[in-house]
């Protein structure tokens, strides 16, 4: 059987006040307190939800809770705001009924949070998808923006909404959100210029100063210090629990999500900064020659910065603060403003600027979140508006707020009664007229077009002549004196003449929630809400695009001399539009209650709550709901809940649900006047009857629980016994099997031991016999061997004696050779080819073999050494070998070059950027790059040249510039001449008649002579198209210089001037090179 829950299950107190018995104000408060103490903050009055602000976080808004209340009957679970939101959403989605959710209560009661919870629940249960999620996110993110600009910290609430908000959320036929439209009512703009003690201005001012970057504040001409601005209160600048900096970042992000462009955000911040700057503008009096006083601005710095922000000429705005122009049909009159009037103009401009900015924000948000499609939409409205206000000092704001609440109470009563009547008619129940207080007479007192208070206030504002708050009160005393809900000190009712609780400048209205005393001071100014035309025109002249939109009446081309509508007229029109809108929708109500003034959890202030219960009309609501039938329920859940009370309906009823309920009520003998049968519901008149059914059900459930426990315990014991019995059989079977296995193992083990002993004895006996037989055979064989040996020795004794000497010699020689080779193996020299060590021979007769082995070992290790060479190293050694063949024992310089490796490219010509151009000029691969000295015939001195031999030519280039001086093809080179001394001189001799020989041979000097000559010789040896280069080694040779031949002679002598080798010209035909003598 499916288990279903109900509002009546596990109930703390009474979940629905309609069922409260007995009903009184004290029992009502006691029930609220009992539920509040157990963290049950929601209670029903029929379909109305009472919400108590817990002032703490409760774990009742989780995603699991959303799923729990999703698609559930309103009374199926304990009271919750989610139940009302789900009921409204399902009615809109499934029944195509437009819905509205009216949230009322005083400041601090949790109205704003309740509206957020409703919207978040609807967003969670409706459809998913990229576009739908975007719409939901925009709808939800509109709240932080409006809260920043429309909420403020008050003594009653740290996040009090200072405006009324009504949002129409539009859905498609599937129930997915398409967009929304927001309407705002009566922003408390007087808070911009003045705040009561202990309260703050609107949040956005503090958020901007705390959360904006230093660069942003610099652009806005603002300072982070709150104390620098007159419009910001200092005693409550910091609120515990509110992080203004983090909230500013949240607002910026929300504006981006909603769809504000970055330039629009900057424009909004500039206007907020301008309001702060306005508050710092101060005035001083100045007397004119005609005796009148006029005002002048004390410090124009703030005015200058404000004008720079808004793009206004400073002189234009300064004049607007000093003069006022009054326009008639054909003339203009300009009058000066005194200091008080200048301050009034400044504050009026600040209030209008901020109020119009807020209205623009709402309009801009509506542009972003409005539905894009043109088809018909389903609509759910959420109204979050100020509750009934009764303060010690009540003014114009409280008057129109309470007027709005009177209208909401009127529509609430009308819609509630209409809903009751429609349900009775729909169910076929006889309708009984319900008596209730109709507050239409109070609404008429306020809004009547002829003699209503608002109409008289507008009439007084428009009347020429001297008009004051006192003249307005006198008019009220004249017109409304006979009204039963109006009281004043001078009314005709004489009993108030001695009523000292009613001052002369006040009047009192008997509202549905109680009497409220209003002070008329400020009524006229607040209703007029005048902004001087000079200021409007100054604002319109600004170069700021948003300012022009906010002050269209300042356009000189569209001057309208007609007086603008008053604040009361505008609010009455807005309320009228709201009422018409609400009457087209199915209403759902949330009544918010503040438990204490300390904003602390777990505190229940009975007097404060009693006051709220009265002015919210909750007792009246309960009486209206109980006037007919206190409880109603459809037949199916009613039968499902109470069928165990009758044997005929328990456990299953096979017929129709209504017939089952009729049988059930007859069996319980419930009096017929206590209930009625509708078409789909049963109606119970008195809560006592419902509690009687609940008590019987509770007793029956206890009996059923006892029966279920008895049957369950018996079944559990029997099951346990059968399980034990089955387990015992299984355990016994396994134990017997185990015992038999152990017995078999013991027998098997004993048998194996006996068998092993028997087999061992047999094996040992056979072994003894075999050993004895083997010993006998071995003995016989030994005897036979000795006998045969004796016979052989006797027969061959002469033969052995004749050849014994040769065998001994061969054996001795073999042993000597073996010892020699083993010793040679253990004393081999290293693997280095230049190691000349070799073990000494031990026997003279091994001299030849010893030398041959040494030669073979040397050749072998040379081969091993050569096998380790790379190709590059092999080429180097080949060049070294060729150098040895050319110069060994022929030139004294050769021994010193043996240990020096042939590097080749000493200048790193390919890597050095200095020689990059030279490297590119040489086409072939450069085999060697070195600096040589070219010897001059005239004086024997050398000039540095870069020597670059390739496979095809020899190139000489200037060392400094890298310019090629000479390039000799190798076929033109016939021979090279060098001396036998340790000098580095060599002569390159060219073929006679060749193009290269025009200037003669080259006499050069180099430190790497051996390497240069060797490489030139190798190039000639590898070439097939020319003769091999000849090397002439002599201490005296001829060198052809142009047309003359010069003899170069090398002599040994002492070095001069520290030079090791010197070259000196002796005559035209002789160059003498002096080379130091070698030791």
From TrEMBL:
It holds the Pfam family IQ. One of its GO terms (cellular component) is brush border. Residues 575-597 are annotated as: Actin-binding. ATP binds at residues 105-112. GO terms for molecular function: actin filament binding; ATP binding; calmodulin binding; microfilament motor activity. Residues 12-698 form the Myosin motor domain. It is found in: Cytoplasm, Cell cortex. Residues 891-1077 form the TH1 domain. GO terms for biological process: actin filament organization; actin filament-based movement; endocytosis. It comes from the Eukaryota. Its main location: cytoplasm. SMART domains: IQ, MYSc. Gene3D superfamilies: 1.10.10.820, 1.20.5.190, 1.20.58.530, 6.20.240.20, Kinesin motor domain (3.40.850.10), Myosin VI head, motor domain, U50 subdomain (1.20.120.720). Keywords: Actin-binding, ATP-binding, Calmodulin-binding, Isopeptide bond, Motor protein, Myosin, Nucleotide-binding, Phosphoprotein, Repeat, Ubl conjugation. PANTHER family: MYOSIN, UNCONVENTIONAL MYOSIN-IB ISOFORM X1. Motor protein that may participate in process critical to neuronal development and function such as cell migration, neurite outgrowth and vesicular transport. Belongs to the TRAFAC class myosin-kinesin ATPase superfamily. Myosin family. This is Unconventional myosin-Ib.
């Amino acid at each position: 059987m499916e288990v279903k829950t109900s509002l009546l299950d596990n109930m703390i107190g009474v979940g629905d006040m309609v069922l409260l018995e007995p009903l009184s104000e004290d029992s009502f408060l006691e029930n609220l307190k009992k539920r509040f103490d157990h963290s049950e903050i929601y209670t029903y009055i029929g379909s109305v939800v009472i919400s108590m602000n817990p002032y703490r976080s409760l774990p009742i808004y989780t995603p699991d809770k959303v799923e729990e209340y999703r698609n559930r009957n309103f009374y199926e679970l304990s009271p919750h705001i989610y139940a009302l939101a789900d009921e409204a959403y399902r009615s809109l989605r499934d029944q195509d009924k437009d819905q509205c959710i009216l949230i009322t209560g005083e400041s601090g009661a949790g109205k704003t949070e309740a509206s957020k919870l409703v919207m978040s629940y609807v967003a969670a249960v409706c459809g998913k998808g990229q576009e739908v999620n975007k719409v939901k996110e925009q709808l939800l993110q509109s709240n932080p923006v409006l809260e920043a600009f429309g909420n403020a910290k008050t003594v009653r609430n740290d996040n009090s909404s200072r405006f009324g908000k009504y949002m129409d959320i539009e859905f498609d036929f599937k129930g997915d959100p398409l967009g929304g439209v927001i309407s705002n009512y009566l922003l408390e703009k007087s808070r911009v210029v003045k705040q009561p003690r202990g309260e703050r201005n609107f949040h956005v001012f503090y958020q901007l100063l705390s959360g904006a970057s230093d660069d942003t504040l610099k652009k806005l001409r603002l300072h982070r210090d709150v104390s620098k601005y007159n419009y910001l209160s200092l005693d409550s600048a910091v609120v515990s629990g509110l992080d203004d900096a983090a909230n500013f970042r949240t607002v910026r992000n929300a504006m981006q999500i909603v769809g504000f462009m970055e330039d629009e955000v900057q424009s909004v911040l500039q206007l907020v900064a301008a309001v702060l700057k306005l508050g710092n503008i101060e005035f001083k009096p100045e007397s004119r020659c005609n005796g009148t006083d006029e005002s002048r601005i004390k410090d124009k710095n703030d005015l200058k910065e404000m004008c720079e922000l808004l793009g206004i000429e400073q002189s234009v705005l300064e004049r607007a603060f000093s003069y006022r122009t009054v326009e008639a049909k054909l003339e203009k009159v300009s009058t000066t403003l005194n200091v008080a009037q200048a301050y009034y103009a400044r504050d009026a401009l600040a209030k209008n600027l901020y109020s119009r900015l807020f209205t623009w924000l709402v309009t801009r948000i509506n542009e972003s979140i409005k539905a894009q499609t043109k088809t018909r939409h389903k609509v759910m409205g959420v109204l979050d508006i100020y509750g009934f206000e009764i303060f010690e000092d009540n003014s114009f704001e409280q008057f129109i707020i309470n007027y709005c609440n009177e209208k909401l109470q009127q529509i609430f009563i009308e819609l509630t009664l209409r809903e009751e009547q429609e349900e009775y008619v729909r169910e076929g129940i006889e309708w009984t007229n319900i008596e209730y207080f109709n507050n239409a007479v109070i609404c008429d007192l306020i809004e009547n077009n002829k003699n209503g208070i608002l109409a008289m206030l507008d009439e007084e504002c428009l009347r020429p002549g001297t008009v004051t708050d006192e003249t307005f009160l006198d008019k009220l005393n004249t017109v409304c004196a006979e009204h039963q809900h109006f009281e004043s000190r001078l009314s005709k009712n004489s009993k108030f003449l001695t009523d000292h609780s009613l001052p002369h400048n006040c009047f009192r209205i008997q509202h549905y929630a109680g009497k409220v005393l209003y002070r008329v001071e400020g009524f006229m100014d607040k209703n007029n809400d005048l902004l001087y035309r000079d200021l409007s025109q100054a604002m319109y002249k600004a170069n700021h695009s948003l300012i022009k939109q906010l002050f269209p009446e300042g356009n000189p081309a569209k001057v309208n001399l007609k007086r603008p509508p008053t604040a009361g007229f505008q609010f009455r029109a807005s309320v009228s539009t709201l009422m018409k809108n609400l009457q087209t929708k199915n209403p759902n109500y949330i009544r918010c209650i503040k438990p204490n003034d300390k904003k602390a959890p777990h505190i229940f202030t009975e007097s404060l709550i009693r006051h709220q219960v009265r002015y919210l009309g909750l007792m009246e609501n309960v009486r209206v709901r109980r006037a007919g039938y206190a409880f109603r329920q459809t037949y199916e859940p009613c039968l499902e809940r109470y069928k165990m009370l009758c044997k005929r309906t328990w456990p299953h009823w096979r017929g129709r649900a209504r017939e089952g309920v009729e049988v059930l009520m007859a069996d319980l003998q419930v009096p017929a006047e206590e209930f009625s049968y509708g078409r789909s519901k049963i109606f119970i008149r008195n809560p006592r009857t419902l509690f009687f059914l609940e008590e019987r059900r509770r007793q029956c459930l206890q009996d059923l629980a006892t029966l279920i426990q008895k049957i369950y315990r018996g079944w559990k014991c029997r099951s346990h016994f059968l399980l034990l019995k089955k387990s015992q059989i299984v355990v016994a079977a396994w134990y017997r099997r185990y015992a038999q296995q152990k017995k078999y193992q013991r027998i098997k083990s004993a048998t194996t031991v006996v068998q092993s002993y028997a087999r061992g004895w047999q094996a040992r006996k056979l072994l003894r016999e075999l050993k004895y037989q083997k010993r006998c055979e071995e003995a016989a064989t030994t005897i036979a061997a000795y006998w045969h040996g004796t016979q052989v020795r006797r027969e061959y004794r002469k033969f052995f004696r004749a050849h014994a000497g040769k065998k001994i010699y061969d054996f001795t020689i073999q042993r000597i050779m073996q010892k020699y080779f083993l010793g040679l193996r253990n004393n081999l020299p290293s693997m280095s080819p230049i190691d000349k060590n070799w073990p000494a021979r031990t026997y003279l007769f091994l001299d030849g073999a010893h030398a041959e082995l040494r030669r073979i070992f040397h050749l072998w290790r040379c081969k091993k050494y050569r096998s380790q060479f790379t190709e590059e190293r092999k080429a180097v050694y080949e060049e070294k070998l060729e150098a040895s063949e050319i110069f060994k024992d022929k030139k004294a310089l050769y021994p010193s070059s043996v240990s020096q490796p042939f590097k080749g490219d000493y200048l790193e010509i390919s890597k050095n950027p200095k020689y990059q151009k030279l490297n590119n000029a040489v086409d072939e691969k450069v085999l060697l790059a070195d600096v040589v000295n070219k010897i001059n015939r005239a004086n024997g001195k050398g000039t540095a040249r870069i020597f670059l031999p390739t496979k095809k030519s020899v190139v000489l280039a200037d060392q400094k510039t890298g310019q090629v001086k000479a390039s000799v093809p190798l076929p033109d080179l016939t021979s090279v001449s060098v001396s036998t001394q340790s000098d580095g001189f060599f002569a390159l001799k060219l073929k006679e008649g060749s193009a290269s020989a025009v200037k003669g041979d080259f006499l050069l000097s180099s430190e790497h002579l051996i390497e240069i000559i060797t490489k030139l010789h190798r190039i000639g040896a590898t070439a097939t198209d020319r003769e091999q280069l000849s090397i002439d080694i002599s201490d005296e040779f001829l060198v052809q210089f142009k047309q003359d031949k010069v003899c170069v002679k090398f002599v040994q002598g002492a070095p001069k001037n520290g030079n090791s080798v010197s070259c000196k010209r002796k005559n035209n035909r002789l160059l003498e090179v002096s080379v130091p003598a070698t030791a």
